Amino acid sequence: MNQRSGGCLCGAVRFTLTGEPLSIRICWCRDCQHLSANGSVNVLVPEDTLSIRGTLAEYTKSADSGNRVTREFCPSCGTHLFARSAARPHLRVLRAGNLDEPASIRPQLNIWTASAPAWACMDPALSGVPHQPAPPPESS
């Protein structure tokens, strides 16, 4: 297991991840496209493996999956850092671009491919699903 760290653009929010990701996915849902202007690389982690230093602002809305999703960002620089789904409160989504060493992870799957624009560059080595996949199995 590698400990990973990261933070926002201005450094006001820092985080440490002490467990391995459950899943690493490139999401093409419309919400992620709005947040990143492209597909967003999302790292799904158990909530109890993530420690956060600094203040976060929140925005909650219903996602295309039907779940209420709370997105968390730095109130100073606006960097989008995390997301939580009401359907899976024990998990957190971490935006991979905010890791100090984003090369320490590798995406495994493209999701919401039905929403991807025609110009989307998807790695042909990764499988894809048209909408929301089932959650990864729980770690034991």
From TrEMBL:
Pfam families for the chain: GFA (PF04828)
Keyword NADP in annotation: no
Domain CENP-V/GFA: 4-120
Source organism (scientific name): Candidatus Macondimonas diazotrophica
Taxonomic superkingdom: Bacteria
UniProt family annotation: Belongs to the Gfa family.
GO MF terms held by the record: carbon-sulfur lyase activity; metal ion binding
The protein's name in its UniProt record: Aldehyde-activating protein
Keywords recorded for this protein, A-Z: Lyase, Metal-binding, Zinc
